[in-house]
Amino acid sequence: MKLIKYPSKEQWSELLKRPTLNTENLFDTVRTIINKVRFEGDKAVLEYEATFDKAVLSTLPVTSEEIKEAEGKISNELKAAISLAKQNIETFHASQRFVGKKVETMNGVTCWQKAVGIEKVGLYIPGGTAPLFSTVLMLAVPAKIAGCKEIVLCTPPDKNGNIHPAILFAAQLAGVSKIFKAGGVQAIAAMAYGTESIPKVYKIFGPGNQYVTAAKQLVSLRDVAIDMPAGPSEVEVLADASASPVFVAADLLSQAEHGVDSQAMLITTSEKLQAEVVLEVERQLAKLPRKEIAEKSLENSKLILVRDLEEALELTNAYAPEHLIIETENYLEVAERITNAGSVFLGSLTPESAGDYASGTNHTLPTNGYAKAYSGVSLDSFIRKITFQEIISDGIQAIGPAIEEMAANEHLDAHKNAVTVRLDSLK
Amino acid sequence: MKLIKYPSKEQWSELLKRPTLNTENLFDTVRTIINKVRFEGDKAVLEYEATFDKAVLSTLPVTSEEIKEAEGKISNELKAAISLAKQNIETFHASQRFVGKKVETMNGVTCWQKAVGIEKVGLYIPGGTAPLFSTVLMLAVPAKIAGCKEIVLCTPPDKNGNIHPAILFAAQLAGVSKIFKAGGVQAIAAMAYGTESIPKVYKIFGPGNQYVTAAKQLVSLRDVAIDMPAGPSEVEVLADASASPVFVAADLLSQAEHGVDSQAMLITTSEKLQAEVVLEVERQLAKLPRKEIAEKSLENSKLILVRDLEEALELTNAYAPEHLIIETENYLEVAERITNAGSVFLGSLTPESAGDYASGTNHTLPTNGYAKAYSGVSLDSFIRKITFQEIISDGIQAIGPAIEEMAANEHLDAHKNAVTVRLDSLK
């Protein structure tokens, strides 16, 4: 961990730098895999599963028997926890339902928006050491509420061709329509273009390694929408002297254990807290199973002491953290002044873990400073708002001449004429 | 125009095909320009302006004198029309303001969303034969309502280094902060990375040719968000026997005059209408100044006769048109069943031109079937929704054990520990 005291403004951009993620140099490799899946379908996906996931499969779909069996393989405690989390995610995302109102912009001119779920969505859940059933909930629950008709999930199988039962349980609970054993670039390509067994979808969601990220970027250039650009996960804790060093250390470590490129940062007005957090991180780190990852990640971790809350806020908004934990007095007032962040956790009893799993907010969030331009995943991510307008005779008479004038000045006479023929019909 | 009668479902995908827009082969050329602007700043932009726009400039910013002069150069009629349009766009987009509500997902666990404007946005307005002041309004008005603090506009100057006064007037009226004489790839690069005079922005909006599209795609891979992928403009008219062939023809032509790659389609249940529209298009076409463009574009235009309204709806949702005009009896009922479209125009007195200019809806819309996954530009495009959560002791006691269980099963023990230390503190 790096302790920084009272940095000058000139140092900020260096302090707030993230590791750059350049996926463009992977595009050639990734494009080859994408094209093979696009033109050879299931056959190519099965081949890549054998090569990359060492799984020899005869078919890609997960059967209903496998889903049924999964339920018996996980503990009642875990099932109950997943169900509680699902319920809270559902409550919060259902509250985000959009109901458009009709607006008469002028007499006889009525405009409105209507939310419609994206018909087919694809969810990608990475494999690796940990089964990310929480991400299944975060993506499938809002998709279901949005009214998406087909919710496709791809996740890589283990070497024996199996998917972790907790992933299957969460998927079935959240209302996923179809689950496939496919990972990596081949899964993204399959959902982008469709194969014999995997349906083509209109938007792809979910995390992944740099190859998955590159594949999502490439297919999004023309053929399918994606949730948002990806980068390593990160947390900032903004704390004053009232914060508990034990809690702050636990929060920094929970980010650090994600991966060696994770970013954990403390911005504080208290020199005492800064010092105590260092000791407390060391104490807690010793007990962690993923100690090595966390240790490596913490090498890049910065604990920054600033002059006052004002400066802390300015630095925070310049950083635009994915996760922001505010442990200060009057944290609600501080929160009011946050303009750039993905998700904000308020007060001493609100760890990031709560939002990662079970409070109800979404954990798919903008990293890498993307919070300056992107929102996290929410119900909005699974709908489109279609605009409608109805103009009656009073309306076209009111706005028609303005349209004619503007169209003529943009040299678009057919646009003008489409109004003129209507005005003439009313004479 | 191609007249198609009762196509079989097997023919649909061929019928609904759009011209493919492959920008990837432009990436190398475009990347060179982007990098030069990124590293040389204003100097590079000025050089490219001389090369591509034949404009020899000494500086890039439009001065306040130029803006003041512009007002004197356009007619009072046009000023009044632009002001009326601006007012309606403002009324409709202001009605889209999002107010988050606090939701208690469980006792002691409160979650909410808050809308915050994107701090810095960049608007690109293309040059060419027509001054697109309407697009200035469509992008700047919602940016202003959203609370974007810096609204930057780039548009190419003419050979004499001037910008059309209607663009300057609309920009100033709508609240654009800074206007620059810069077009094409160099403008996109300047807004993505910033130069000495052009500020870096977080999201870039606006139409453009294939080079501009490629530039937006490239910078969006990592460095800045963009509004949506672009493609040629298109309209579908869905009409029954009650529709006026004069209106339908005028609407098809207003799309066709945009460019030779524009798509204009009629889907109708009336053979009589199909035949009449052909004659009426010919009659109206003869009088159009942009006749040659429209004629060329109409070569790809399809007038499709289908069996019934049911089939018309299915075909429409499969096509996912950017603009959809519904001229049928009971058009409100028909509208209810539209699931894929950008903007929908209802009834015989609602031409696309109305939404293009002055009704209040936005005219920046998803083309190329992107309406299956994307919305058009709206107030949402200029904000982010930041999520907040506050958990108090009852709350963490209620959801804490579930978080611990889930984190342990995802092998994320530090995540678990961040909850455990808090539960322990409450004992």
From TrEMBL, chains A, B:
Coiled coil: none annotated. Substrate binds at S233, Q255, H258, H323, D356, E410, H415. It is an enzyme of class 1 (oxidoreductase). One of its GO terms (biological process) is L-histidine biosynthetic process. One of its GO terms (cellular component) is cytosol. PANTHER family: HISTIDINE BIOSYNTHESIS TRIFUNCTIONAL PROTEIN, HISTIDINOL DEHYDROGENASE HDH. Belongs to the histidinol dehydrogenase family. This is Histidinol dehydrogenase. It comes from Bacteroides faecalis. The lineage of its organism: Bacteria, Pseudomonadati, Bacteroidota, Bacteroidia, Bacteroidales.
